[in-house]
Amino acid sequence: MSTPGGAASERQLPRELGAGHAAAIVVGTVIGSGIFLVPAEMMQAVGSPGLVYLAWIAGGVLSFFGALTYAELAALRPQTGGEYAYLRDAYGPLFGFLNSWTWFMIAKPASIATVTAGIVRTLGEFSVFSFLPSRVFAPLPVTYEQVVAISCALFISGLNYIGIRKAADFQLVFTILKVAMICAIVAVGFSYVRGSIGNFSTRFQGAQGGIAGFMAALVAALWAYDGWNDLTMVSGEVRRPERNLPIGLIGGVAVLIGLYMAVNAAVQYVMPAAVVAVSKRPAADAVEAVLGAWGAAALSVGIAVSMLVTLNGTVMSGARPAFAMARDGYFFRALAEVHPRFRTPSTAIVVQAIMAILLLLLAGTFKQLFSLSIFSEWLIYMAAAGTVFVFRRRGDTSPYRMWGYPVVPAVFIASSGVLLYYTFLDNLRNSIAGSLIIAAGIPIFYFFARRKRSVEHPGGGTLGEPS
Q1: Which residue, of 56, 198, 314, 445, has the fewest CB within 10 Å?
Q2: Any idea what DSSP says for residue 106?
Q3: Can you tell me whether residue 17 is helix, strand or coil?
Q4: What's the Cα-to-Cα distance from 141 to each of 118, 121, 131, 133, 356, rounded to whole Å?
Q5: How many CB atoms lie within 10 A of CB 447?
Q6: Whole-number pLDDT of residue 456
């Protein structure tokens, strides 16, 4: 692929990540605070452990089918930006641009702001950090919470700035520790002398129930699974991508399913359905029941570290879509710069950090922005998964051919459509707003497309395919 505005060697990111790094990006990014919190929300929605498990299984199968589909696409198009490359090459540069526009301008900065704020809230559970809600300087509306959150964002952005390998090694080591912590939670839960298998037969009578309730539980489960696609955004930096990308995606999601089911079982073994439903921190309450307050405190520290690893994966992946579309000439050229020493998309990382910091300084506004992106994210997943049919019809052969084609991608796309339908109706205002934000990228794309055409074809001509 040619790169406008410079030699190809000046715009390439080095392939330094192995299969272990790839799996750690999937597992470490996905496991944040969700698994420790959503069991309560799911129980409130469906009312019984059996239906909670059915939602976990359905969410896991849907995510696994998505991973299988993306594994074939990633092996076929192992390029920086992931979904950007699939949509660009299947449907045209406009669709690739809208994908990257959504991730870089809304979803990723809002995710960074949300995760860092979550870290601060977790630290706030300790009395030593009781000062966090206070203002740093009385006249300024900036709190210590915001300062700590911004510091986390800057630290992880700085780590990614100085090298993908350093950030990936951090991801690998702390993902291993995160998995060990989850295994410890499971062991502690099932060691509880007052625990009972009978808890799996209890019910919460105040549940929402019905199809709407199950869909609410499924959305909660999918939120806990969300983020497995982030690996594809760094595809251009993975060694032997035809092998390591499928291993990372498929193996990573399989590990997630096992861990999530085990944690939910341990929590349910310790507490009956009615207690799980009203718990603000089900996993922490389960650990506290077994080990006391010190155990819950240790888990809170572990959750904060877990979220820091999630933040690292989010920052790592978030800068790549903008880098890819800028390299193709469809965005500000500065974002396509590769640092001469660290070989990272340094400008894109810096801009992403600035955008996240601005959201943090706007206090609660970032939560609203994040809710705007939920509908658009699943729209991207569905559209990107559909490209596998386009590539197969063209005769493009991927080094990895998914199991179950065409049923697997068709089920994923159909399920995504159902989820989008319920999400749209349940959150109509934000879904419409999210769609409008995506549409706002269309005139911006044509501005850069015209500029690209004027540079490549000074005498005129029609807009061609991306270089």
Answers
A1: 198
A2: I
A3: strand
A4: 20, 18, 15, 11, 17
A5: 11
A6: 81
Amino acid at residue number 189:
G
For residue 40, give the nearest of 206, 227, 255 by alpha carbon: 206
Q: What is the pLDDT of residue 459?
A: 64
**Half-sphere exposure for 283 (CA within 13 Å, toward CB):** 27
Distance, in Å, from the CA atom of 377 to the CA atom of 225, rounded to the nearest integer, reads 13
Structure tokens at 158: 């700085």
**Calpha distance 439→43 (Å, rounded):** 36
- As beta bridge partners, residue 143 has 135
pLDDT of residue 369: 53
Return the closest-CA partner of residue 394 out of 92, 90, 95, 93: 90
DSSP code of residue 298:
H
Rg of the Cα trace of the chain?
Answer: 22
Q: Which residues lie closer than 8 Å to 82 by C-beta, 6 or more apart?
A: 70, 74, 229, 231, 232, 233, 234, 235, 317, 320, 321
Q: Give residues with Cβ within 8 angstroms of 152, minimum separation 6.
A: 116, 119, 120, 308, 311
* Cβ atoms of residues 257 and 251 within 8 Å: no
Question: Within a 10 A sphere around the Cβ of 322, how many other Cβ atoms?
Answer: 27
For the chain, count helices (H), then strands (E): 19, 0
Mean pLDDT by 10 residues, the chain (467 residues): 43 91 96 84 93 94 96 96 96 95 88 88 87 84 91 97 96 96 95 94 91 87 90 96 96 95 95 93 92 91 92 96 95 95 96 92 58 74 96 94 95 89 76 82 96 80 45
Query: Would you say 320 and 345 are in contact if contact means Cβ atoms under 8 Å apart?
Result: yes
Q: Would you put residue 463 in left (φ > 0), alpha (ψ -120 to 50) or beta?
A: beta
Residue type, 177: L
- Quickly list H helices, 15-107: 19-30, 34-46, 49-76, 83-91, 93-102
What's the N-to-C CA distance of the chain in angstroms? 6
**Cα–Cα distance, 44 to 47 (Å, whole number):** 6
Of 332, 317, 353, residue with least CA distance to 236 = 317
